[in-house]
Amino acid sequence: MAARTGLTLALLLTAAPALAQQPLREQLTIGITQYPSTLHPNIDSMAAKSYVLGFTRRPLTSYDQDWALACLGCDTLPSLDNGMAVRETTPDGRPGIRVTWRLREGWRWGDGTPVSAEDLLFAWQAGRDFSTGFGGSEFYRSAYEAIVVDPRTITLRFDRVTFEYASTGDWQPLPAHIERRRWEQEPRSYRTRSAYETEPTNPGLWNGPYRVTQVQPGAGITLERNSAWNGTAPAFRRIAIRTVENTAALEAQLLAGQLDMIAGELGLPLDQAAALERRTGSRFRIGYKPGLIYEHLDVNHDTPLLADRRVRQALILAIDRPQIVQRLFEGRQVLAHTNVNPLDWVHDNDVRQWPFDLPRARTLLEEAGWRPGPDGIRRNAAGERLTIELMTTAGNRSREAVQQVIQGMWRQAGIEARIRNEPPRVLFGETLNRRRFTGAVMFAWISAPESVPRSTLHSDEIPRAERNFSGQNYTGFRNAEVDSLLEAIPIELDRERRRALWQRLQAIYAEELPAIPLWFRSDAHVWPAWLENVRPTGHLAPSSLWVEEWRVTR
What we know:
The chain is α+β, with helices and mostly antiparallel strands and 554 residues long. The protein is built from 19 helices and 21 strands. The protein folds into 3 domains: 24-40 and 45-54 and 201-289 and 524-552, D-Maltodextrin-Binding Protein, domain 2, CATH 3.40.190.10; 61-180, Dipeptide-binding Protein, domain 1 (Alpha-Beta Complex), CATH 3.90.76; 291-522, Dipeptide-binding Protein, Domain 3 (Dipeptide-binding Protein, domain 3). The chain has helices at 9-15, 17-25, 47-56, 117-128, 137-142, 176-185, 190-193, 195-198, 247-255, 270-280, 304-307, 309-317, 321-329, 358-367, 397-412, 424-431, 454-457, 480-488, 495-512, and strands at residues 27-32, 61-63, 69-71, 85-89, 95-102, 143-150, 153-158, 210-216, 220-225, 238-243, 261-262, 284-299, 334-335, 371-372, 378-379, 387-391, 416-419, 440-446, 515-528, 531-532, 551-552. A 6-stranded mixed sheet has the order 13-19-12-18-16-17. It has a 5-stranded mixed sheet with strand order 8-9-10-1-11, with helices on both faces. The protein has a 4-stranded antiparallel sheet with strand order 4-5-7-6. The radius of gyration is 24 Å and the shape is globular. 45% of the residues are buried.
C-alpha cells in the first residue's frame, strides 16, 4: 500500500486493474456502534466484545448458523452415545455427569504456545473463585472438579445432568502462561490487571484467525492475520474495526468510503438501513436477519415506584408498541410479550399479551396511589412526582427516536420520563454492571437457542460487590418460583416436561414484568457488493466466528 500512495485511484483503475483491486482488498474496514468495555473473554457481557473476539479467539463450542451446537475449538461434541459424556453419582449421592472435551490438533496461541487443557483448567479455577468476577457463575459452581487427562484433553465433573451438558458456554481457554501469575497475585483486582487490559496486542492472548495489533480506546481496534492459526486462512491481511457510536455518522462514513461494511450485530437500526437501501440501490448488499435479540427496558426494582407491579404493568400498557414498530421500523420487528422469541421452540403462543390500553394504564396508576397533579404529571400522597429516568445508548438514532416516542406516550398516562443517555462503553461497563441507574434502561439481550435466562433473572445473579459485580440481573428482580424454575429447566431432559416449565416461566414473566418487553429485533447487515459468505446467525454467536469463510468475489 505504501509504495502506491503517490498514484491516483484513476491511474490504478485504468493502468493496472489487477494491482488496483488487490491492495484495496488487503484490508476490510468494519464499522460498529459500540466499543468493548474489555477484551477479556470471561469478564462482562457485551456484543461489541463478542464481535471482536469472534475474529481473534475460538470457544470450544458454539451454536452455528443453523442453530445447532458445534465444535469450534474441540474435535467432537461429547455425548452419552460416544462415551465422552458419562452419567455418574456425585460424592454427595446426587445424579451427576462427567464430560470430556478434546481440543483440536495444532491449535496455538499467537505466540506459538499450544492451546492446552491447562489453559482450560486455569479458566475453570479462576471462574470457581467468585471474587474474580467471571460471568456464568452457575457453570463454575456446578462443575465441581476438573481433570487434565493429557495436554489436549480435559474432563469436568458436574453435580447435575443438564440438557446442554455438551456446551461449554462462556468457559473459554485463557493463556495460563500469561494470565495465571497475574490472577494468583490477587483475584479480586485481576479484571483490571489482566493482560487483556494492560497489553492487548500481546500475540499470546489470541488463538483465532486474527490477533489484535493496535488498540485506540473508544475508537477502534486493528487486527492482523495470526501466523500461528492452523485453520483455513482468512481472506484479508488486516481487519480494521472502527467504533462510531452515532449511527448517522456511521452511515456517512460508509457512504464516503471510509468503511467497507457495517456489522449487523452492532450497526444501523433497521429503519435507517432500509432507507439506505432505497437510496443506494445495488451499491451495497443489505441483509435483514431476525433473531434472538430482545429489545426491552430493564427497570430497577429497588426503586420504590418500580417495585410496584401495577406501575410496571402501566408502563407497558401506556406504550403503543405496534404503532412504534409500524411507523419507525416499517413493521419489520416482532412484538415481544416475554423474553422468549417466537423463533425458539419453547415459546408459548398463548402467553399473556399487553395491548396498548391507556385507560387501563391510568387505572392501575390510580390503584397504586399515583394521581394527576396540576401539570398532568401524577403524584403520590407524599407529593412526589411520578418521574422515571429513561436511559439508552447515546448516538443510536433509532433508540433515541423510540425514547422520545415513549416519553410522549408515558406523559399521556401522567408519567414523566427524563432522558439521560450514556456512551455504550459507560452504560454497559459501569452503569448497568454496578446497577447505577434508578429508572429504565433500553437495550437488547442477545441469546443462544433455548438459552435459560438464569444470569438475567435469578436472584443469585444480581450484581453485588462480594461477587465483584458478576451477574446480569441488573433489574434486581427477586422471585422464589422463578429461581426454582431456572434451576429445574436445565436438568429436565424430557422435552415436553421442559416445555411445560418454560411455559410457566413465561407466564410469570408476562405477569410480573421483571423488564418491559418491546420487540425482537431484526439486524440489518450492510456488506460491500464484493464480499460474500458472511452468514449471520440470528443469535448470540457473532458472524465473525466464521471469518475464515468470508470471500472476496472481485
